[in-house]
Write a structure and sequence with these properties.
It holds the Pfam family DUF5694. By secondary structure, the chain is α/β, with parallel strands linked by helices. It has 2 domains: 145 residues, no CATH class; 76 residues, no CATH class. It has 9 helices and 7 strands. The strands form 2 sheets. Strands 5-4-6-3-7 form a 5-stranded parallel sheet, with helices on both faces. Strand 1 and strand 2 form a beta hairpin. Helix 8 packs across helix 9. 27% of the residues are buried.
Length: 291
């Protein structure tokens, strides 16, 4: 038996004995302490996890992404579609709203939000989906502050086309040439969909897996003979989204809070994958509100 194995076995035994003693002595094991940098909040283990409505969106206005959906956010019909969408999502009744903006930009976003509260006859398109969707949902629920959770990192999604691939160029090239071969239902022109149908498509688990695969995981098939250039590039995307998740965890929360998150579809996919395994959060099905 190795020393590490012996230590692990002892740790497991101690945990088991501690739990057994609590039961025998009638001690309550229903509470635990969740600590953040700003507060300590005690919640019951038996209580529900904090519900989260995690919504993936395309970018309404400016986007640094490789692909942009043409969308006239100033059009009367588009404004009406967004208002209808907002009313659906607002029924979640969030107490905390997070958007794809960095914490450093929170002051600017919240200043714009306060201005919108004073004049909301027309949706504010200055910050794309952040101001057109998140601002209105926050207003409808009487929320005073919006949190930024984004974290910027450089990422070269095109590295597979910029180097000689010695790992598995066959799989990579075939996938890039036809990423819809295994998921033909996603081979649609989003500009031909209604706003609601587009959001429904983007917020299904299968589509989120597709986004993670085409933007990150496929790069694990790319690299030099003895290198991991593709995987290392994909790691940056994972790292960025892990840091975004850490930013969510920085927000002071109570067990009674309800969290609404609005971000790009790929970020929403990463956040969903992390939320599913979280001891703190419980994902709410977006399609329960997108109807």
């Amino acid at each position: 038996m190795t020393l590490n194995y012996f230590k692990a076995a002892c740790l497991t035994l101690l945990i088991t004995l501690h739990f057994s003693c609590n039961l025998k002595e009638g001690k309550s094991s229903e509470s635990e302490t969740i600590s953040t940098n700003t507060q300590t909040d005690t919640v019951k283990k038996t209580a529900s996890k904090i519900p989260v409505l995690n919504i993936g969106s395309f970018h309404f206005r400016f986007t640094p992404d490789a692909h942009k959906v043409e969308f006239n956010e100033e059009g009367a019909s588009e404004q009406a579609e967004i208002r209808a969408l907002n009313e659906m999502l607002a029924k979640f009744k969030p107490t905390i709203i997070c958007v794809e903006r960095t914490p450093e930009n929170e002051a600017e976003i919240n200043e714009a939000y306060q201005a919108y509260l004073k004049n909301n006859d027309k949706l504010d398109s200055n910050y794309g989906e952040t101001s057109m969707v998140a601002f209105e949902i926050a207003r409808l629920n009487g929320i005073k502050k919006i949190y930024g959770i984004d974290h910027h990192m450089e990422y070269n999604y095109n590295i597979g086309n910029e180097m000689v691939n010695s790992i598995d160029s066959l799989t990579y090239n075939a996938y890039i040439q036809n990423p819809f071969a295994h998921d033909p239902e996603f081979n649609v022109n989003p500009e031909e969909l209604s706003l609601l149908d587009h959001f429904k498509l983007m917020n299904t688990p299968k589509y989120q897996d597709f986004l993670m695969n085409i933007n990150a995981d496929i790069l694990t098939y790319v690299g030099s003979e003895n290198g991991f250039e593709g995987a290392d590039e994909a790691t940056k995307l994972y790292q960025r989204n892990l840091r975004m998740f850490s930013n969510i965890n920085r927000i002071p929360m109570k067990s009674t809070d309800r969290v609404f998150i609005l971000s790009g579809g790929l970020h929403a996919a990463f956040i969903a994958s992390l939320m599913k395994r979280s001891p703190k959060y419980e994902l709410v099905d977006p399609l329960a509100y997108l109807k």
